[in-house]
Specification:
Blueprint: E1 23-28, E2 33-40, E3 45-51, H1 54-68, E4 73-77, H2 83-88, E5 94-98, H3 101-111, H4 119-132, H5 145-178, H6 181-186, H7 192-200, H8 204-208, H9 212-221, H10 227-239, H11 247-283, H12 288-291, H13 298-309, H14 319-326, E6 331-335, E7 338-342, H15 349-365, H16 367-378, H17 383-404, H18 410-419
Parallel strand pairs: 1-4, 4-5
Antiparallel strand pairs: 1-2, 2-3, 6-7
Helix pairs in contact: 5-11, 5-13, 7-11, 11-13, 13-15, 14-17, 15-16, 15-17, 16-17
């Protein structure tokens, strides 16, 4: 498995040049209305706004289709996803050029030093960029429907998990304020045992009124049967003292707890539903075999890595292009004799999270990744710095596997490291 950064002209031929557009459009998408600036190939220009409705947008697009006879139209806008992109993708004569908001903002400031801004001038800026700088922009290449669905599922799941974490933190904080013993009595809050326990006994006085046998049967029912742990918890209940007897405070806290428990139960149920759906969609994905057996990936991260690379191999012609897009490649700046390196600010957060989280797990499951981590730790590097650097290295490996459609083989890669006498080679 060769992991050099050579281009893949022999693997993925460059796409054919796009035909000249019949018109260029800058579309500034807003919450209540959308501004557009249009120029035809003959030089005619027009500007206007569209109200926020699916009917208005599609009527406008259908009118453009009749006006230009289905000839190509280039549209520049400050997004590569969302409702507007989904709508535009239904019209094959439209070529979408996603423009980074930072690019348009800096372009605008170049000619408007005062910083004045409103929707129509923003649409003009997008029009100028898509008309005059097409060669520096990449047209949007939509992924296949399976990848789009899997991407939506894994991102939605991550959002649910983040919300669940927030609710768990709120429950922890609330219990510490009036019922701290519960944290020891239930252990992990993100369990059916914890939810059922706290719904049944939401305060200490209610719990202390329960007979030990009832409490013991509850724990047995929830598969907690270790005698020493049971006795420890029963003893804690016997010795527990109410933190505050003020019913005015406790009654309010109990209401808050019940509300949070309802949220936690719903989030737990829906995370499980998403997990099952992700498992089904990922199993049917054409690229699943490349990511399913990666060290440390597992059922949560393997689909996220699959989505990260997708199916369009021309999108990333070399590893560096993917490293920069993912935000794990640092930015180097020079001015005179000064040179400094800093964090890449403009990068997809979820994508970077996926790669760095997975890189951290490979330290446990991949021999060379563990060697690399230990080497960097010995040099005094911080944990997160090492993981970003490790993700950078892993991308080179995965990119080659992805381009050649060859599943990663740890044994093969370790032999290559040994042949090259890499410092990350594993000692025999």
């Amino acid at each position: 498995m060769n992991t050099t950064t050579t281009t893949t002209a022999d693997l993925t031929p460059a796409p054919a040049p796009l035909p000249a557009p019949a018109a260029w459009i800058g579309l500034d998408w807003g919450h209540h209305e959308h501004a557009f600036a249009l120029q035809t190939a003959t030089g005619a220009t027009e500007e206007g706004t569209l109200t926020q409705s699916a009917e208005t947008l599609h009527a406008w697009l259908q009118a453009l289709a009749q006006r230009f006879g289905g000839r190509p139209v280039a549209v520049g806008l400050e997004t590569s996803r969302g409702a507007v992109v989904a709508a535009l993708l239904q019209y094959p004569w439209i070529t979408i050029y996603p423009i980074n908001p930072v690019t348009s903002a800096r372009y605008r400031k170049t000619f408007t030093p005062s910083g004045a801004s409103d929707d129509l001038p923003d649409a003009r800026v997008l029009l100028e960029l898509v008309r005059d700088h097409t060669a520096k922009l990449r047209p949007l290449e939509p992924e296949d429907s399976q990848t789009v669905k899997l991407a939506g599922l894994v991102e939605a799941r991550r959002d649910l998990v983040d919300r669940r974490t927030q609710v768990l933190n709120q429950i922890t904080s609330l219990l510490r304020g009036y019922y701290p013993q519960a944290l020891e009595l239930v252990g992990d809050l993100d369990t059916a045992l914890a939810v059922d326990f706290l719904r049944r006994w939401p305060d200490l006085l209610t719990l202390k009124a329960v007979k030990p046998g009832v409490l013991k049967r509850f724990y047995y029912t929830h598969h907690l049967r270790r005698p020493e742990l049971l006795e420890q918890r029963l003893a804690l209940v016997r010795q527990a003292v109410v933190l505050t007897p003020d019913d005015a405070r406790v009654s309010v806290a109990v209401l808050q707890l019940r509300c949070l428990l309802d949220q936690l139960r719903a989030l737990r149920q829906h995370v499980a539903i998403f997990d099952q759906e992700i498992k089904t969609v990922f199993a049917a994905h054409p690229e699943a075999a490349l990511f399913r057996e990666l060290p440390g990936a597992g059922p949560a991260l393997a689909p996220r890595l699959c989505v990260a690379f997708g199916t369009i191999r021309t999108l990333y012609p070399d590893p560096a292009s993917f490293q920069k897009h993912a935000g794990v490649a640092p930015v180097r700046e020079k001015s005179g004799r000064s040179c400094w390196t800093h964090w890449r600010w403009q990068a997809p957060v979820f994508l970077r999270q996926s790669l760095v989280e997975w890189a951290g797990l490979t330290v446990v499951y991949s021999a060379w990744a563990k060697v690399y981590y230990q080497r960097m730790k010995a040099k005094g590097k911080g944990h997160h710095v090492i993981l970003r650097s490790l993700a950078f290295k892993w991308i080179r490996v995965l990119w080659k596997c992805w381009q050649t459609r060859t599943p990663y083989d740890e044994a093969v890669y370790l032999r290559q490291l040994a042949r090259r006498k890499s410092p990350n080679a594993v000692a025999a």
